[in-house]
Design brief:
5-stranded antiparallel beta sheet, 10 strands, alpha+beta, Phosphatase 2c, domain 1, 11 helices, 2 domains
Amino acid sequence: MDSARVRQANSLGVAVTWVTRTVKRVRAHRHARFVVLLGLTVVLGAATLAGREVVPVSLLVLPVLLGGIVLAFSWLRWIVGLTIGFLAVAGALGGFDAAYLATAAVVLVTAAVSLGLARSRARLGVTGTTGESMLVDLRDRLTAHGSLPPLPAGWEVEMVHRSAGASQFSGDFLVAARSAGGLMLEVALVDVSGKGHSAGTRALLLSGAFGGLLGSLPPAEFLPAANAYLLRQSWQEGFATAVHAVVDLSVGTFEVRSAGHPPAIHYQSGSGRWTSLQASGGLLGVFEKDVYEPATGRLRPGDALMLYTDGLVEAPRRDLADGIDKLQGEAERLVTKGFRDGAPKLIDSVASSEEDDRALLLLWRTP
């Protein structure tokens, strides 16, 4: 008995291994996928012709649906053509009653949708879910560019980002780096024109370019280089705003440069006030050879620096200055409670709409 069970278990294991390897081979070879689905179409079609009562015509939707996922457009046309042929013959043999016509309509609509999806993927030269995987990979790379480097003791930072309509892609992004032996922290918060998916593709391109510039150039040359790069793209809707901050982590001195971006806000624990830093500079991608004058200051123990995008403070029928005042008013409440976990509180309490991308960075020096 025991030996029989062992043989049965071994046979089952061999069968599972064979099926697994076969599936992997089918998935790895495009021709094999086509042959398998073509054979499945022929088998189901022949069974349907033999008896619609036993094998319903609706089963013909399976190879069409699977083909729309894993086949290229040129091969999927053969599957769809063969399916339409079986539908026509099955109708001629068994009659075009109302139930048959309804089922055939579902199969044909599925075939049209599958062909449309395959044709759209063909423009990129990808099949199956490769296109979606590429987008996920690009999204992950954008998130990685915005990851903040670890800071030395006495410094803390928080970054919160919310996309319009809870989209995974956004026109707001952050790039950050530590340079000069780790003593200098550079961050650039960028807001690309548009929002959500419409701005996401441009944000993906710019995040890679700006991430390469940040830390590789002297701080004063970052925004001019970013502006020159954006001008070379010649996009119809290609402008962006940015705020670039450089902080010396050893002594706390900082420089903030702005390219048409809402002003950064500096909290001074000595006076207990939040003040806007008026750095001047034009939009990126609009003016050639623009000059970006910095605003300077120093972060002492207990001080904080806040960078944000206009989606946080801008709203219909509300002046931008009123939105900034509201942000500063909400930030006053953080002083007594501490800045930790303050960034998500601010972005939730100040943002008036979820129809725009919103981002906020809060950097502070512990007392």
